[in-house]
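Students often ask why we bother encoding 3D structure as a string. The short answer is that it lets us treat folding as translation between two languages. Here is a chain of 144 residues written in the first language.
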Amino acid sequence: MHTHIRDLAFVDEMRGTDLVGRVERADFTPEAGAAATRALLTAPEPVTAVVFDNDVMALAGLGVAHELGLRVPQDLSIVAWDDSPLCEAAFPQLTALSHDVTSYGAHVARRLFERMEGAPHGSFLDATPALKVRGSTGPAPSAA
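And here it is in the second language, the structure alphabet:
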């Protein structure tokens, strides 16, 4: 459900701009992240930025960008979701949407206990992540 909510938010935000957005589905594995990145970067109109649903896929996407000869962030910006230590270990360090994982886990546990006590199921906003800008994002490349 969280991915669906992020997809809807992305599509909604893109409507208010003159930019073209694209959602590529993946299953959170490095292999799927690499395949999705390859599809986005080898399309007739390749993307200039990718927001990944987790850090592992972002790291795989960074590898694909390098394989294809793209420079990050000069040719492609990459944003990860989770902000695990992988983001700081990568080169360049990955910009990430950071959230308090411990707090999130406590929130999930509370919701689980509430559900076990008969509360209705649903999606709940815990906390808004903060963008930690690092070396993987920059201005969009100029049209040639």
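Translate back mentally: The two ends are 39 Å apart (CA to CA). Keep this in mind for the problem set.
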